[in-house]
C-alpha cells in the first residue's frame, strides 16, 4: 500500500471536500484529513444555509 499523495487537504467540510474533489479531477492523488468523527461537523454544519444573500454592491463603493 502506498502512502504517497500529491496533495493533502486539512478539513472535510464543504470547502475542503470541494478542494479535494477539484484536485482529484485533475489527476492528483489526494488525502483529506478530518479531526471530527464525521465530515461536515465543523463550521460547515453551522452556516445560515444561504449560498448567496442576493446583495450586490456597486463597483468601487
Give the arrangement of secondary structure elements.
Blueprint: E1 7-10, H1 14-25, E2 30-33
Parallel strand pairs: 1-2
How would you describe this protein?
- It is a single chain.
- The chain has 61 residues and is an alpha+beta fold.
- The protein has a domain at 1-29.
- The chain is 20% helix and 13% strand.
- The chain contains 1 helix and 2 strands; from the N terminus they run βαβ.
- The chain has one helix spanning 14-25, and strands spanning 7-10, 30-33.
- A two-stranded parallel sheet has the order 1-2.
- The chain is flat.
Q: Record the strand order, biggest sheet.
A: 1-2
Number of strands: 2
The SS-based structural class is alpha+beta
Mean pLDDT: 86
Radius of gyration: 16 Å
Proportion of residues in helical segments = 10-25%
End-to-end gap:
55 Å
Contiguous runs where pLDDT drops below 50 for at least 5 residues = none
Number of continuous helical runs: 1
- Could you give a short account of the major beta sheet? 2 strands, parallel
SS strand fraction? 5-15%
Q: Per the principal axes of the C-alpha atoms, what is the gross shape?
A: flat
H-E order? EHE
What brief labels describe this structure?
2 strands, flat, alpha+beta
Gist of the model:
The protein is an alpha+beta fold and 61 residues long. The chain contains 1 helix and 2 strands, in the order βαβ.
